[in-house]
């Protein structure tokens, strides 16, 4: 089973592909999206000025705002991974404490 991607992950994937001036099909395959999902994201991202469409090349290109998003996303993603590891350690410690306080008897 694959890893779930949230909205920010998908946007970042599309922006990474578009940073190389990509056509819709390239974005769809490299970002691993269905055509209908891609259409929805491209419309929203173009409207938000994260990418723009160039008629002469028929490619999507990364804008300055899209580049700023990618930089901020990379920092967010790094912090998120760090916090997830810390949270996992806290849950492990909590489980250990709960086991120590358990009232069930263990067999010798």
Please, could you describe this protein's structure?
The structure is a single chain. The chain has a two-stranded antiparallel ribbon with strand order 1-2. It has one domain: Arc Repressor Mutant, subunit A, CATH 1.10.10. It has 108 residues and is mainly alpha-helical. It has helices at residues 7-18, 24-30, 35-47, 64-100, and strands at 51-54, 59-62. The longest helix has 37 residues, at 64-100.
Features of the shown structure:
mainly alpha, Arc Repressor Mutant, subunit A, 64% helix
Task: Provide a concise account of the structure shown.
The protein is mostly helical and 108 residues long. It has four helices and two strands. It has a two-stranded antiparallel sheet with strand order 1-2.
CATH superfamily: Winged helix-like DNA-binding domain superfamily/Winged helix DNA-binding domain
N-to-C span:
40 Å
Q: What's the total number of strands?
A: 2
* Largest beta-sheet characterization: 2 strands, antiparallel
Shape, principal axes of CA atoms: elongated
What's the order of the H and E elements?
Answer: HHHEEH
The CATH topology is given as Arc Repressor Mutant, subunit A
Q: What is the structural class?
A: mainly alpha
Radius of gyration: 21 Å
